[in-house]
Amino acid sequence: MQLLRRLSLGLLWLLAGVGILCGLVWGATAAGVIKPLVVISGSMEPGIMTGDLLIATKADTADLRVGDVVSLPSELTESLVTHRIESIEQTGTGQFAISMKGDNNEFSDALDYAVGASVWKPTAQLAGMGTVVTRITTPAVVMPLLIGLGSLLGLSLLIPPAPQRRAHSAVAVNP
């Protein structure tokens, strides 16, 4: 019984650590420090594969160069598109027009991207983790995970801890 209690407590601590990490990622995302992106097409393969998770950070548009990979908002899809820069030109004070193309695409993107002083630039790539994040956030997975977590918590509370042994101290008696 004690082994079962220790295993459940160990798993709860591991899940608590994962929860703290998720909270930190959520906080950084809400604060606009990072933007997690799940790759949903093969337009950048083989360098960036479908199902990868990209972690993008803000980058100054003035510092970008042809060949950089950035994630820009598309007027056509109303979502971010992550492609390689083909050309960049300043169109006004703090405004830029960027032309992009996916590495695996035959043609450049249909429209240029009008952007301001900063853009999202992928700085980390986690192979296949986008698929994992997408799948574990579905109700069919979240509900059993929550039930299992509740069961582990209940199990750790129901099984009493092992009795503690007291250390005996020697008491000197004066005759």
From TrEMBL:
GO terms for molecular function: serine-type endopeptidase activity; signal peptidase activity. Its EC number is 3.4.21.89. It is found in: Membrane. It is an enzyme of class 3 (hydrolase). CDD domains: S26_SPase_I (cd06530). One of its GO terms (biological process) is signal peptide processing. The chain crosses the membrane at residues 141-159. The keyword Transmembrane helix applies. It comes from the Bacteria. The keyword Membrane applies. GO terms for cellular component: membrane. Keywords: Hydrolase, Membrane, Transmembrane, Transmembrane helix. PANTHER family: SIGNAL PEPTIDASE COMPLEX CATALYTIC SUBUNIT SEC11. This is Signal peptidase I. It comes from Microbacterium invictum.
